[in-house]
Amino acid sequence: MKTIIFVTDNIFNKHDYFRFNIGFLKKNFRVKIYSFAKIINPKVIKKFKNYRIKELFIFNNISEFQKKLKNENNVLVIDFLGSSSYAWKIRNQIKSKNIKIAKFYNGLSERPKLNLIYRIINLFIKKKQSAGNIFNRLGIKFSNYFIKKFKPDIAFVGGDYYKNEAKKNKIKEIINVHSWDYDEYLKIKNKKIKSKNYVVFIDGNVPDHPDYIYHKATPPVNEDNYYRDLNNFFNYFEKKFNLTVKIAASPKSKKNVLKYFFSNRKIYFNQTPILIKDSKLVILHKSTSIFYILKFNKPVIFITSNKLIGTWYHDEILYNSQKFNRNLLNINHDITIKKKRFI
Questions:
Q1: Are residues 239 and 288 in the same domain?
Q2: Alpha-carbon Rg of the chain, whole angstroms?
Q3: What CA–CA distance (Å, rounded) separates 60 from 86?
Q4: Helix runs in the chain, H state only
Q5: Is residue 115 predicted with pLDDT exceeding 80?
Q6: Distance between CA atoms of 255 and 48, rounded to whole angstroms?
Q7: Cα(36)–Cα(91) distance, rounded to whole angstroms?
Q8: Is the pLDDT of residue 343 over 50?
Q9: Run of H or E including 58
Q10: Dist CA 20 CA 32 (whole Å)
Q11: Above 80 in pLDDT, residue 125?
Q12: Are residues 316 and 297 in the same domain?
């Protein structure tokens, strides 16, 4: 039986387990998840928890991985590693065993396309650093320079853009796939709508997302200010429109934190698609869940706040709102919303 190994240097959570269809894959393959987060991103492991499953192997050092790899046969590796020097060492170890490496190119969020001058300036402005400062970026560029000839053996691509990119990189085997979200859409698209008398807020764990540690990004806002502004806005919204606001929790949010700050609201984990489908309106900053909003043709309000304005996160919210031809609402000021816009 063939073995599929997912390699990652980030946390592996319950959402990952389901979006990668690990349960389905186990019917026909031996499936393993190799985590190098403890080696490459130890701060992530200290602050956030992995999903506890028997298929997950957490390595303390590279030699442990090398010993484990010696015993693997008939393997395909799915690569979710980043661009650190350790990540490239791991890839080289895998390649040295003549094991094929595959990568997914689908479902990535679009970001504002800035010219070179603005990108350089933003590296020196802390609030604008979505992927580290100039020294972090130079380190990644330096690592990538020495392995620029490296390419995966197989590319799983979703959409023409990624297909063309794979062809440009001369990846030998290109396999067309759809996005992770489309799988879930197919499961729920024909389910009967239960209730539409609520609004859903798509949580993005804005103050404390683990990817900030992973990408060395500056957190755009602190918890107290962020959740205070949100709750004030939701209270206003519920009173004006007589609609309940439900929270679709980010899979990378901490349950105890959301329960503390949203103590009077219902919070749902791993239910974002169905919550969007059955809702009257969706409120969000930015999210890959925009896919479901479009598929189910839901009205949407993009929101920002005084504390977010001036940060890299606000720039990405603004970019998304403009892309979908929607006004961006500042919940500290512009909370004049006409009911006919969405009901």
A1: yes
A2: 21
A3: 13
A4: 14-19, 22-25, 37-40, 42-47, 62-70, 85-96, 116-122, 134-145, 160-168, 180-188, 210-215, 223-241, 255-261, 272-277, 290-295, 312-323
A5: no
A6: 11
A7: 12
A8: no
A9: strand 56-58
A10: 12
A11: no
A12: yes
Q: What are phi and psi of 33, to 5 degrees?
A: -120, 120
Predicted confidence (pLDDT) at residue 99 exceeds the cutoff of 80: yes
Residue 157 φ/ψ, nearest 5 degrees: -120, 140
Per the CB < 8 A criterion, the answer to whether 327 and 309 are in contact is no
Q: Please count the CA atoms within 13 angstroms of the CA of 134 that sit on its side-chain side.
A: 8
Q: Which of 159, 131, 176, 145 is nearest to 315 (CA)?
A: 131
pLDDT, tens digit (0-9, with 9 covering 90-100), for 242-268: 999 999 999 999 999 999 999 999 999
Residues 211 and 176 placed together within one structural domain of the fold: no
pLDDT digits (tens, 9 = 90+) for 175-229: 998 877 888 898 898 888 777 789 999 999 999 998 888 878 889 999 999 999 9
pLDDT band at 48 (very low <50, low <70, confident <90, very high): confident
Looking at the fold, whether 203 and 313 belong to one and the same domain comes out as yes
Q: Average pLDDT for residues 140-150, to the nearest whole number?
A: 62
CA dist 162 and 160 (Å) reads: 6
**Is residue 31 a contact partner of residue 24, using CB atoms and an 8 Å limit?**
no
State mean pLDDT over 257-285.
95
For residues 158 and 179, the answer to whether their CB atoms sit within 8 Å is: yes
Q: Are both 240 and 337 inside the same structural domain?
A: yes
- CATH code for the domain of 280: 3.40.50
189-196, long-range: CB < 8 A, 24+ apart: 189/277, 189/295, 191/274, 191/277, 193/277, 193/278, 194/278, 195/278, 196/278, 196/279, 196/280
Range of the domain at 82: 3-110+145-182
Report the alpha-carbon distance of residue 85 to residue 1 in Å, rounded: 32
